[in-house]
Design goal:
Layout lengths: L2 E7 L4 H12 L4 E8 L5 H8 L3 E4 L8 H14 L4 E4 L8 H6 L4 E5 L11 H8 L3 E8 L9 E8 L6 H25 L4
Parallel strand pairs: 1-2, 1-4, 2-3, 4-5
Antiparallel strand pairs: 5-6, 6-7
Helix pairs in contact: 1-6
Amino acid sequence: MTKRLAVFASGTGTNFSALNQAIKDRQIPAEIVLLVCDHEQAPVVQRARVAQIQTLIVDFHAYPTKAAAEEQILQKLKASQVEAILLAGYMRIVGPTLLRGYPHRILNLHPALLPNFPGRHGVEDALAAGVRETGVTVHFIDAGVDTGEIIAQRVVPINTDDTVTSLATRIHAAEHDLYPTVLQRLIDEGVF
């Protein structure tokens, strides 16, 4: 049975496109049926249009509370029969409304080896710390910032001449492979 997924993204959408392509190429029994984005002009919105994937743009400033905005998202997810959510560069902390609606069914992709370097600047923070390696983490989300149960990680070495751009490029390559691999595993194991 094909799993119905939503991807939440805020930016360029490279992971969105990589996930969508990997689902097709690897014949993962899943389908991205909805993109949820919090920025109308984000490049990921155009990627979803090209892929003919329905998009929900949510302007959080148009709602009286975050919970009200998330309730609107939750209604759309349920109407679209979404079974699990994949965060892919979504730059908002998911609140209790969505956490209750999709318990243990929301994954996040983080550009560092958690618990090291949580938050928005994982690549920059790893470089600034002078560590020899960083990587990618796929984890379930909880109410904290990058504190949920870790599912899988992949190490990415840091070269002495790395810049944020060169390191981020290698991290993206690891993300584009690891995220669909984890998705396949969770489906195979019946977690999703």
